[in-house]
Predict the 3D structure of the following.
Amino acid sequence: MSMDLLEDKSDERDYALERLIMLSDGVFAIAITLLALELRPPEGWDHTLVSLSALMWRQGLAFLISFIIIAGFWIAHRKMFGRFRSADMGLTVLNMVMLCAITLVPVANNIAFEGGPTGGGFVLYWAIFTLLGLANAAIWAYAAFARPALFRSVPPRNARLLTLVLLLIMPVSMPLLGLVTSGTADVWIIVPVLGLVLLARVFRSRLKRTLDPEWRP
């Protein structure tokens, strides 16, 4: 009888993790869909591509950046949760905080690049993605240092620490996106992208030297 109870409890924890992953995937998918639904032809468009590009380039740029960032967080979320064998209340709460930030992205996307890096729209945009990045890092920190039993196979401590640093790169880098909104710095959209890629490669190579051979970030 006691063994049956233990098996039921284990199944319930696995089921809870699956439900959490399914909910997260749905929220990510809806957020990306809502981003696209907000792309509408502006007033005054004369039905030429040149006019459309001139009127919507900022809105299109905001959509592209938001899509790339959301997609990146979804990939990170999928890989992270693929390492967990179960989910507890702490992990669930932190994940819900992250999903809350995801649901706000389409709202902020519409007004993100209107007032420049000091405008209220950009501040909201930056704050939401910062919250998203911090929540994502908090999920890893909670599992890696407070509840390592949530992992299928617990990675080395150095790997857990370096991965946390890697996850914090995104929220720390968010202010760089303000360069996109200035009239003379539109080409600097590549700065945050290239910076994140470079830092990710540096930390990834460091991780490969510290991780167990059978575990990869």
